[in-house]
Amino acid sequence: MRKIVLAGNWKMYKTQAEALEFLQGFLPQLDKTPEEREIVICAPFTALGTLCANMHGTRLRLGAQNVHWEEAGAYTGEISGPMLAELGARYAIIGHSERRQFFGETDETVNLRLKAAQRHGLTPILCVGETKEQRTAGVTEAHIFSQLEKDLVGIDQSNLVIAYEPIWAIGTGDTCDAKEANRVIGLIRSKLSNPDVPIQYGGSVKPDNIDEIMAQPEIDGALVGGASLEPASFAGIVNYK
Predict the structure, then answer these.
(1) What is the sign, positive or negative, of the torsion defined by CA atoms of 210, 212, 215, 218?
(2) Which of 9, 30, 59, 111 is the most interior residue, by most CB within 10 Å?
(3) 56 pLDDT band (50/70/90 cuts)?
(4) Burial class of residue 124, CB neighbours in 10 A (0-12, 13-18, 19+)
(5) CA atoms of 127 and 109, how far apart (whole Å)
């Protein structure tokens, strides 16, 4: 049985005070959220401790936006799996396109980070997706299949979430057509050894398009950027009809 996972990726937004303010507005709106939906906030490292302390006893789950492949070492600016586990994180986004584009992330380092997340009890959310140029060139499928082949070497698919994020739709307001997203996600599923891996769609997800997205049979949730920053907006997404 595939799980529904709806995750907010706050990226580099929200101080600790702003994160607390968000919780105060958001948590009461989870009273009507169906129990089978897993709701996750992937916050900046600085906000994780504060969020964990104030989410205790709620159904909200905590996630990080990255994890290093070593448990400790001379890796300035990085955060390890044990550090995240201690802060109460249950999930970690791995291989987001912004990490790949701006910070030199490769499929090889993505694979190492996935293994580290699983080793320390975190469920990784693996991001894959194509650029506008790749889509125009007709290589969407080949590119994503290549990412999956390299990223998933040695990965336990019973503890994994995948997010299909067409890069051209992230933060642009240009959402991938729901049926096209469903088609690509179906192809991703065909390449997995475990058909029950939850596969999310990400890319300009909003309250006004979530119903159509979640009506698609292959889509098991959403990885939400900007629309997860406001309590009412993210509540409108997790409480889709």
Answers:
(1) negative
(2) 9
(3) confident
(4) buried
(5) 13
Q: How confident is the model at residue 208 (pLDDT cuts 50, 70, 90)?
A: very high
User: Residues, the chain, total?
Assistant: 241
Residue 174 pLDDT > 90: no
Query: Among 93-102, 123-132, 173-182, 196-205, whose mean pLDDT is lowest?
Result: 173-182
- Using a cut of 0.90, tell me whether the model's pTM lies above it: yes
Query: Rounded to an integer, what distance in angstroms lies between the CA atom of residue 101 and that of residue 121?
Result: 27
Burial string for 78-100 (b: 16+ CB within 10 Å, else e) reads ebbbebbbebebbbbbbbbbbbb
Quote the CA–CA distance of 58 and 173 in Å, as a whole number: 31
In three-state form (DSSP H/G/I as H, E/B as E, the rest C), the secondary structure along the chain is CCCEEEEEECCCCCCHHHHHHHHHHHHHHHCCCCCCEEEEEECCHHHHHHHHHHHCCCCEEEEECCCCCCCCCCCCCCCCHHHHHHCCCCEEEECCHHHHHHCCCCHHHHHHHHHHHHHCCCEEEEEECCCHHHHHCCCHHHHHHHHHHHHCCCCCCCCCEEEECCHHHCCCCCCCCHHHHHHHHHHHHHCCCCCCCCEEEECCCCCCCHHHHHCCCCCCEEEECHHHCCHHHHHHHHCCC
